[in-house]
Amino acid sequence: MAPIFTALRFGFASSGGDGVVIPDLITYAVIGGGGATGYKSLGGPGGGGGGEILQSSFIPATNYFVITVGAGGAEGSTPSNGGDSSILGVITASGGNAGSGTNGGSSGSGYSGGTGTTYAGGGGGGDSAAGVVYQDTFRGGNGGAGTTVTLLSLGCGGGGAGGGFNPPAPTATDGGGPGQSGSGSDLDGIDGATNRGGGGGGGYGGGTGAGSASGGSGRVVLRHADTFAVASTTGSPTVTISGGFVTYDFTGSGTITWS
Question: Which of 4, 14, 120, 131 is the 20 to 30 A CA-CA neighbour of 153?
Answer without folding.
Answer: 131
